[in-house]
Automatic annotation (TrEMBL):
SUPFAM superfamilies on file: PilZ domain-like (SSF141371)
Lineage: Bacteria, Pseudomonadati, Pseudomonadota, Alphaproteobacteria, Sphingomonadales
Start and end residues of each PilZ domain: 116-188
TM stretches of this protein: none
Name this protein carries in UniProt: PilZ domain-containing protein
UniProt region (Disordered), positions on chain: 1-25
Biased segments, Polar residues type: 1-12
């Protein structure tokens, strides 16, 4: 499931606001794009549903994290500071602390190379190789891979298995290494919903309470 693509951007037009709160800016709809919501409870996957220069609507795969202040990070590394206006279930509305250029967010000007959404979640993992098992730590996780810090020596393209508490066993391959750090790519990638709920499980499992 790929939410990184924008649907109907070429033909979409701003819709005038007529809701009771009388929002001042036109709001663009037809946005379905994955992003990262950073709050005091951790980093969580969300989907952008609509946006104006003053605010944004988000949908999550679990309850909205608590706290008024948050930040939205796009896949290209751009960060926008937010203040929560309302939250109901998995839907939330936020205002930008500073008005934004909507066109830049919609078309997502890439100042950095495009990459998968990454979460900075530190957790211990057990790595299994043909030489045995070793302990490692990851602090960077995406749908397709992770970065490991480990004292053991692994070769480029070496096949490994990684697992941890609340983290399913996954087959992975070493793509790069630098000193004691390794970049792994997963054999089977996470669906966005599974990735989002895994992030909540690892950081704030109460958000998953139905």
């Amino acid at each position: 499931m790929d939410y990184t693509a924008l649907q109907n951007t070429q033909g979409s037009a701003p819709e005038p606001e007529t809701s009771a709160d009388q929002r001042e800016a036109p709001r663009y709809t037809s946005l379905i794009r994955a992003a990262k919501l950073v709050s005091s409870q951790g980093e969580f996957v969300c989907v952008i549903r609509d946006v104006s220069r003053l605010g944004i609507g988000l949908r999550m795969f679990h309850e909205i994290p608590v706290g008024e202040e948050a930040a939205l990070e796009l896949g290209n590394g751009k960060v926008f500071e937010l203040k929560r206006v309302r939250a109901k279930g998995r839907e939330g509305s936020f205002t930008f602390l500073d008005p934004i250029a909507v066109d830049q967010l919609i078309r997502e000007d890439w100042d950095y190379p495009k990459r998968q959404l990454r979460l900075n979640i530190a957790m211990p993992l057990t790595v299994t190789a043909i030489t045995g098992r070793v302990e490692a730590i990851t602090d960077n996780l995406s749908q397709q891979g992770c970065r490991l810090d480990c004292d053991a020596a692994f070769a480029i393209d070496q096949n490994l298995r990684i697992a941890g508490e609340h983290f399913p066993e996954i087959r992975a391959k070493v793509r790069w290494r630098k000193a004691a750090s390794y970049g792994l790519v997963f054999e089977n990638t996470f669906m966005l919903q599974d990735f989002a709920r895994l992030a909540a499980t690892l950081q704030c499992p109460q958000l998953l309470d139905e």
